[in-house]
Amino acid sequence: MIRIACGKGRKERLVPLSPRLLKELRIYWKQYRPTDLLFPGKSKNKTYADTTIQKAIKVAAIKAGIKKRVYPHVLRHSYATGLLEAGVDLLTISKQLGHASFVTTMIYPCAARMSWAGESSSAATAMRSRRGTTPAETGTAPASQS
């Protein structure tokens, strides 16, 4: 497990690691020996800027030949959908994603079914709007800061 200190919604959570990823992270850690953050930004105690992450994902998608629009939140959806397809129960997925409400996690089975049927991810957005669910309620938009 790896501890995510300031993930989406500034929530802390534990996320399982595959043996392969753990091996790669150990190699990285031995080489760079980060002290505060595993992946520091320009300085050792600053995280990467959001735009830096967005650009890196966009470049990786282009290199991989992915034609669809790719952004950081797609990784969350892909992770959750992969867990669902592997048979992980929705409550476990909900906890790993840090959803405050189990209902928020219910979008993933619908999105997975649409994906299997070849429908676009915009269908999930349309489904949410028909339900009257806002992006903030589904965890697809940043929560307002108070």
What does this structure look like?
The chain is mainly alpha-helical. It has 8 helices and 2 strands. It has helices spanning 19-32, 50-64, 72-85, 90-97, 102-105, 107-116, 122-131, 135-138; strands at residues 2-4, 13-15. Strand 1 (2-4) and strand 2 (13-15) form a beta hairpin. It is globular, with a radius of gyration of 17 Å. Mean pLDDT is 77; it is low at 120-146. This is Tyrosine recombinase XerD.
Features of the shown structure:
2 strands, mainly alpha, 146 residues, 2 domains, disordered C terminus
- End-to-end separation in angstroms reads 31 Å
Structural class: mainly alpha
How much strand content do the residues show? under 5%
Major sheet = 2 strands, antiparallel
For the record, the count of structural domains works out to 2
Major β-sheet strand ordering: 1-2
Global outline:
globular
How many individual β-strands?
2
GO molecular function, one term: DNA binding
Organism: Neorhodopirellula pilleata
InterPro entries: DNA_brk_join_enz, Integrase-like_cat_sf, Integrase_catalytic, Tyrosine_recombinase_XerCD
Pfam families: Phage_integrase (PF00589)
Question: How would you summarize this macromolecular structure in one to three sentences?
Answer:
This protein is mostly helical. It has eight helices and two strands, in the order ββαααααααα. A hairpin with an 8-residue loop joins strand 1 (2-4) and strand 2.
